[in-house]
Amino acid sequence: MKLIQHWMLCAALAACTLSASAQNNPPPPPDGQPPGPPPEAIAACKGKAEGAKVEFKGRRGETVKGTCKKMRDLIVAVPEGGRPPPPPRD
């Protein structure tokens, strides 16, 4: 009887371990770089000049006010009060 309980406990622990490791985590960014700006921030500045004031919907559906700034090869909306863009990589 104890042998059956032992094997059932081992099976339960293995099932818990497998289910925890099977979670769908997003892959890490390539080359260790942070993910790019959201599509809404890019669309808000499409056809606008750097420095233009814009509004767009944030990731949670809220209205975000921002300024169009050049980041890498794109002009994107940077939220007011947000962190400055990282320096360009060589």
Quick overview:
Keywords: Signal. The protein is of the alpha+beta class and 90 residues long. The chain has helices at 2-21, 39-44; strands at residues 53-57, 63-71, 74-79.
Description of the molecule:
The protein has 90 residues and is of the alpha+beta class. It has a domain at 36-81: Thrombin, subunit H (Beta Barrel), CATH 2.40.10. Helix content is 29%, strand content 22%. It is built from two helices and three strands; from the N terminus they run H-H-E-E-E. It has helices at 2-21, 39-44, and strands spanning 53-57, 63-71, 74-79. The chain has a three-stranded antiparallel sheet. Strand 2 (63-71) and strand 3 (74-79) form a beta hairpin. The longest helix is centred in the N-terminal third of the chain and has 20 residues, at 2-21. The radius of gyration is 23 Å and the shape is elongated. The chain starts with a helix and ends in an 11-residue tail after the last strand.
Q: In angstroms, what separates the terminal alpha carbons?
A: 67 Å
Q: How many H/I helices? A: 2
Proportion of helical residues: 25-40%
Report the radius of gyration as a whole number of Å.
23 Å
Widest sheet: strand ordering: 1-2-3
How does the major sheet shape up?
3 strands, antiparallel
| Overall geometry | elongated
Keywords: Signal
